[in-house]
Specification:
Blueprint lengths: L1 H13 L12 H14 L44 H12 L10 H12 L36 H4 L11 E4 L12 E3 L4 E6 L2 E6 L5 E6 L7 E6 L5 E6 L4 E5 L4 E4 L3 E2 L5 E5 L4 E6 L6 E6 L5 E6 L5 E6 L4 E5 L12 E3 L6 E6 L6 E6 L5 E6 L4 E7 L4 E7 L4 E6 L6 E5 L4 E6 L6 E6 L6 E5 L3 E5 L6 H22 L1
Antiparallel strand pairs: 1-28, 2-3, 3-4, 4-5, 6-7, 7-8, 8-9, 10-11, 11-12, 12-13, 14-15, 15-16, 16-17, 18-19, 19-20, 20-21, 22-23, 23-24, 24-25, 26-27, 27-28
Length: 489
């Protein structure tokens, strides 16, 4: 019996549902006891009274206010600052009245009213102010911060973009124009007269007045004009014909001399190139005009160009060669070329000297080559080369913007303006329906004239100078000339 009694005592101790006599009071027991205490004190759910339970406890709600309870311990919630409701109202008023015009005469009155009504200036209540100039720093203020980046207007952003029209300024008819790559049928004189060869006739167009004059016509119908070029002063026109003659004509249609087909002039020496590849120099002042013969090309001479300073004569031929010849002295015999370049893979007709760099020569190849090459005559090296993907028939340098203009045949039949010396394409001028044969520049270098196999002459006004810059340049030239004249005197 004693054994069974011991087991019952152990089971009674291990039972978890037995009340614990020494344990603290449970939470639900404390809640029930507190509610009983409030009921005994006369408090009911339908009544209110200003009774504080103890001085050490903070009431959970403020009487008469429906606000969130304030946390009883520090750091329990984020801090929300108290904002002045008056300033928010004023800011709302300013935003609503921002677009209304302001009377500047009442500025001081408004400031006084604002101070009296609000206790502060209304301008100081702005949350965000956009516009107006920034305030100056106070006197003696120093900023030790290092400037990492600053933005300023650059010359490229200030400079106006140049407009180049894609359509010609004027179109002239050129009926019966001979469509031959090897001919030079167009030239513009320093007196603003444009000469063009139409089959066996030479016509002059006065760009100033717009008049058209027939200068000459060959007697035989089967003959035709091969080349023409103005003298430097623009008073005489040299004309090469298919019967192996060169005529020097004055504007009054008087024949000055009968000389021998592709030609160019500088000073008293008149060179002419022939189909045999020889270049003949002539002195038009004397009866025995032939000075010397230059031999270097094995096939037809396609192009001749004097350098701006008259030191060199460049020639291009159907043998794909480019020769640079020294100037022939009076009474001198034929000399050897200074340079002979054979890099082109096609006939070289297009030649152009740079007017602001007399030692720079540009040459262009035909259909088999299609490349523009820039040469330095002093060093004899090729500075740059560019594949234009089209036959090059003529070139000229435009000094107003330091650009190079090229006329093309197959396959593009257009005019291209290149930036020099980078040879980046500026613009393409399209409009001709057949290959461009020749191009020439106006005396003021603002317009380029092109003639093509579609029997039209198109004037492209692509190099007009800003009038302000033009006047400044003219003043600079006049001042330079006056200084030179004074030094000579």
């Amino acid at each position: 019996m004693a054994q069974f009694g011991f087991e019952n005592d152990i089971h009674s101790i291990l039972k978890l549902d037995m009340p614990i006599t020494n344990a603290p009071m449970a939470r639900w027991q404390r809640k029930v006891s507190s509610s009983n205490t409030l009921a005994l004190n006369g408090l009911s759910p339908g009544k209110s009274a200003n009774v504080s339970q103890s001085s050490s406890k903070t009431p959970s709600k403020t009487p008469g206010k429906n606000k969130k309870p304030t946390p009883s311990r520090i750091g329990g919630d984020r801090f929300i600052p108290v904002r002045n409701s008056k300033q928010m109202d004023v800011a709302s008023f300013l935003l609503s009245k921002e677009n209304e015009p302001m009377d500047m005469n009442n500025t001081e009155n408004q400031k006084a009213w604002s101070i009296c009504l609000n206790g502060y200036n209304i301008e100081d209540a702005k949350i965000l102010h956009l516009g107006g100039k920034p305030l100056n720093a106070p006197e003696g203020y120093q900023n030790n911060l290092k400037v990492l980046y600053s933005q300023a207007t650059t010359p490229a952003s200030v400079k106006k973009t140049r407009y180049i029209s894609s359509t010609p300024d004027r179109i002239l008819d050129a009926p019966e124009l001979r469509n031959d790559f090897y001919l030079n049928l167009l030239d513009w004189s320093s007196q603003n007269v444009l000469a063009v060869a139409l089959l066996n006739s030479v016509y002059l167009w006065d760009a100033t007045q717009g008049d058209i004059v027939l200068l000459m016509k060959m007697e035989r119908e089967e003959d035709y004009i091969c080349s023409l070029a103005w003298t430097k002063e623009g008073s005489y026109l040299a004309v090469g014909t298919s019967d192996c003659k060169v005529q020097l004509l004055h504007l009054t249609q008087r024949h000055i001399a009968t000389l021998c087909i592709c030609l160019a002039q500088h000073g008293i020496s008149l060179p002419s190139g022939s189909r045999s590849g020889q270049i003949h120099h002539h002195d038009v002042r004397v009866a025995d005009h032939h000075i010397c013969t230059l031999t270097g090309h094995s096939q037809e001479v396609c192009g001749l160009r004097w350098s701006p300073d008259g030191r060199y004569l460049a020639s291009g031929g159907n043998d794909n060669l480019v020769h640079v010849w020294p100037r022939v002295q009076e009474g001198g015999a034929g000399s050897q070329s200074v340079h002979c370049w054979n890099e082109h893979q096609g006939a070289v007709k297009a030649l152009a000297w740079c007017s602001w760099q007399p030692n720079i020569l540009a040459s262009g190849g035909g259909t088999s080559d299609r490349r523009i090459r820039i040469w330095n005559v002093n060093s004899g090296s090729c500075i740059s080369s560019l594949d234009t993907q089209s036959q090059i028939s003529s070139m000229v340098f435009a000094p107003n913007y330091k650009e190079l203009v090229s006329g093309h045949g197959y396959a593009h039949n257009n005019v291209v303006i290149w930036k020099y010396p980078s040879l980046t394409k500026v613009v393409e001028l399209n409009g001709h329906e057949d290959r461009v044969l020749n191009l020439t520049l106006s005396p003021d270098c603002s317009t380029v004239a092109t003639v093509a196999g579609d029997e039209t002459i198109r004037l492209w006004k692509s190099f007009e100078v800003d009038p302000v810059k033009k006047k400044a340049k003219e003043r600079l030239v006049k001042s330079t000339n006056s200084v030179i004249h004074q030094s000579i005197r």
